[in-house]
Amino acid sequence: MVTWVMFSSRGLRLLLPLFLSLTNLQAFTDSREFLLGRDRLFTEEFDLVNGKSIGFFGNRTTLDTLDRLIDDPRVKVAKIFVPEHGLDGAVRAGEAVDNARYRGIPVISAYAPGRRKIDPRELDGLDSLVFEIQDIGTRHYTYLTTLYLQMTACAQASLPFILLDRPNGGGDMVEGPLLDPAYQSYIGLFGPNAHGMTQGELALLFIGERDLMDGDRYDRDGEYASITDLELHVVKMGNYDRKKGIWQQGFDPREWVAPSPNIPTPLSALCYIGSGLFDGYEIGEIVRNYREQGLVQFQNIQLPRVHNLDELLYFLDRCYDNWNFPGLQLEPVKNEITGDWDILQYRITDREIFHSTLTALAILYTWEEIYHSGSENGFTDRARFDKAMGNGWVSEMLTADKMPPFAELLGKIRADEARFNIIRSRYLLY
User: Fold this and answer.
1) 90 by DSSP, 3-state: which?
2) Are 254 and 276 within one domain?
3) What is the pLDDT confidence band of residue 255, given thresholds at 50, 70 and 90?
4) Residue 31 pLDDT level (bands cut at 50, 70, 90)
5) pTM recorded for the entire structure
6) Is there a single domain that holds both residue 317 and residue 249?
């Protein structure tokens, strides 16, 4: 079925012929049972792959889908393509992923030195590419850019792209400043730090917002040509509540499959949106020896100059003077290895009002306020921080001789969030 969708981009109405599997949901709206996109692929949408030779792009989070496709005699899985961390999700961040085989099928890496997407020539002989990965909803986690790049590969190969939609790990959270195109990178493609969109919605945005997506890194005049003509099929979820995100009724977060080694739980994914920004700063985004202390990555951070409980409580009080941390309790934790009180634990009390990025920035702001002055600052790799933050103005504010009030930083970010909410509203499916 061909669906025609009207998009608005910088005041222009752009009519895009998109092959979207947005079929009538009447069959299951009465039961309110939550369904993944892949659940619907194996029911009313199976004609998309029936009798076809397909490629599958995924990882350990979607092995169930891959195995079902391999076991189904009506479809042939000819090639498997994998992102950063590999099919089993065990390869460390930044390390090259090697080619391999899975159940006799070639596994082809789309993550190696100088390579971040499928070579379009490797798509020869396929009828379509099926894409399914559990993402966590933040710009600086590489699966967002991974999706975009594989769409460009299929556009270049004139190959249909079938996306099996899944919940956003960050729910409906939109937060953080908008990316400055000058900072576009593999960990910073577009938009705010957290976009609050499913991958199906992102795919529509990628096609519809050329001006937003263009940047020096992925200029569409060359290797990353326009994806406007991509034949895109989005297999929607059923009865998805975007406010709940990964915590859908009937989708047990205890069955979470880590999409990468350091995101072991849904809450660590939610916290990573903000605490992952401490990379490049002297505050530890992951506590040293966290396994021995039973701590979860990104749900705990480590402070370098704090030793006793009074010092930690003083820092906490100053943090709360700057911001009230809605939906979160910051709890002091004693370091069982060193005996110091140098760990802050995130205890989320309300996911819908928790603001992960502003939590990290309020902590950074307070730390700079107390422990640094003048030209001194706590950045260990400021360029790395700016790359993840997607701009240079945040670090400039944090390192100014006289820092502006935190409310000023908050106001600029809120304005960016409001602008992006207008853009994303054109592409929301749920």
Assistant:
1) coil
2) no
3) confident
4) low
5) 0.89
6) no
